[in-house]
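Tutorial sheet, problem 5. The two components below are modelled jointly, 574 residues in total.
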Amino acid sequence: MRQRTVIGSLGAVIAAITLASGDIAAQGGPPPPAAAALKDAASRPTPRRPGGVPDFTGIWVQTRSRADNVPAALDKTTGTYTNILRGRTGNPVDFERDSGVRQRVVPREARPWYKPQYWERVRFNDTHGHSSQAPDPEFLCMPPGVPRLGIPQEIVQTDSHMVFLYPLHTRRIYIDGRDHPPEEQWLGTWLGHSVGRWEGDTLVVSTVDFNGQEWLGWPGWFTSPDKRVIERIRRVGNTLTWEAEVTDSLLLQPWKTGPQTRMVDLNPRPEIEEPLPCIERDLQHIVTRERG
Amino acid sequence: MRRHPVGCAVFIVTLAAAVPHAQDTDRAKVFYSMANSLGMLRTVQELDSVMTLEVWGRGTMRDVSADGTIGPEAQVKSLHAQFAWDFPGMRVEIVRASGQRTIEVVSGTHAWNEIDKLGGGLEPGYGSAAPAMDQVAVRLLRMWMTPFGAVKAARAAGDQARITIEGGRTVVTFPLVEGKPEQTVYMVVGELKGTPMKVTLDARYRPAQVEVTFRGRKYVNTYSNYGDLNESDLKADIFVPANVVAMVDGQMVLDLTIDKTNTYNPYVIMPVPPAVQKTGAR
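Model answer (structure tokens):
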């Protein structure tokens, strides 16, 4: 039990920090982007490459200012945190239960509509997602897959391809007009094979060739190797907006996620710190299925 | 092991602060306590966070036919009910001791019976769905009469709700109203619109009895022995009555003991099967 408490507390603190800084507006937690800054960024001219297409190159940062990220329980008059765990009572158990309940509040259209023969498996995955019975692959430090990776942190663009950089992962998007390899040559990968084409100023990225081990999301939303993803990415001024649509033989209808919007980092010499490696250490210590 | 006394003390202090005076008639305070006592309000912002729910139970029941005739008592070997307040919808699967199995669904303004499989009729070759559109109002009524349904319905009624004290108990009376889709509830009441619902609360402001008269019949549900009925390693502090008794015109139609719940907003969806959509909406 002591072990559980320690892990629960650490997990809660880490989750609190994550909640305060992540691009998770769809989960209902953080405040909306700083609208004025976003509007100003969008009003700037859109940089273009010699061929006329938008230039996505840059580091793309979250649209909320640091001032938006303070935990809800910061007492601004004293500068102290009264409830850093953002739970009802401030204790780790309540935090985990609140978070576990709250993170599963996903609007009906934002939940993937699985075919009924898969409903029970989704529920099983969900309630066993942090156990060895049906571990969330991301919890095991496997790649999140597409579109769970979300909007890129950095993009490097050439005339033939783009490189999407995420904190721990890299994707290559070929924009030289090639098609996907024929299906018999597919390998079954975590991040798939991606090709892009321009529709006006919107880059439309098609990704196939998945291994079916990646999940769409935290509450047990598993996938199959049939999954196909279409991402639509548009630069307007200094903003980048990303959204994705997933089709999969497991689903009754396509599933959409996003939009997420980021602003370009205007620092003339921006840097990104090396992220910590992902090392799974918790699985053997988790003794309940409560997970938040 | 040290966290339990500390956790209990924090819980008791919180509960003492949250529960209003036993006979409070302040509408906002009563609404808050109704939701909070069921564990619906979560995070620092205290948002209604119960969107979906599953319960499993057993007991006895009597069928109520369309003309109001109440059938003989039958043993319910198992009952599995799913709620998705955001559709809004309810799916109830009952297996009787005789082996007879029924799956009744309502989702928004559609009602149907799933044949053979949960989700039957949503895709070719996987069970089927038989429209039961004449059951929409009664199934919606059953759904909004559950403890979570009643609390959500009362809050939706807002200023139209009246708080009184009867026999020392707080009573909330309100008309069923339609609402816009919200994150954890979409108030769809169809033909029930304007029907008065009376909710009598227990000492902790949880629904103890819910009464509605609709189409000349009196429906009364009583709820007792609330607890966190999730499995021991999946507790969520969301409280569901272990005992449910439903009466129609004074006769028992369901006497249910709930054994298990999943209150962690489990994956529950209620799409309307194509064959049912074709029948139109009520």
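Marking note: Residues 196 and 214 of chain B are 9 Å apart (CA to CA). Full credit if you identified this.
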